Amino acid sequence: MADRGAHPLSFPDDWPDHPDPILVLNRMGSFDWDLDAGVMQMDAQAHEIFDVRPDEYDDCPTTLSVRIPPAEALRLDATVSQALKDGRENYGAYFRVRRRDGSMRWTHTQGYIRRDDTGRPHRVIGIVRDATQELDDAEARREQAAQENARRRQTNIVQLTTAALAHARTVREVIDALKDTHGLTHLGATSLVMGLVEAGRIRLVAEGPEGSFVPGTDVTRIDEPYPMSEAVRTLSPRFIESPEDFADRYPGLWEGITGLHITSAAYLPLIVQGRPIGGMGLLYSDRRGFTADERNILVALGSSIAQSLQRAMFYEQEMDLAQKLQQAMLPRTIPSVPGADLAVRYRAATIGGSLGRDIGGDWYDLIPLPGGRVGAVIGDVQGHDTHAAAVMGQLRIVLRAYAAEGHPPATVMARASVFLDELDTDRSATCLYAEADLSTGLLQIVRAGHLDPLVRRADGSCRRVCVPGGLPLGLSAEFGRLDYPVGTIELDPGETLLLCTDGLVERPGSDVDDGIETLSALIAEGPDDVRELADRLIDVAEERGGDDVALLVLRRRVLDSQRPGGRLRQRVTPGDPEALAGARRMIRTAVGAWGAGERADEIELVADEMITNVLMHTEGAAVVTLRALTGGEPRVRVEVEDTSSALPRRREAGESGVSGRGLLLIEALTDVWGVEARGGGKCVWCEFVVEKEPDPV
Question: Of 261, 198, 271, 185, which is closest to residue 231 (Cα–Cα)?
Answer without folding.
Answer: 271
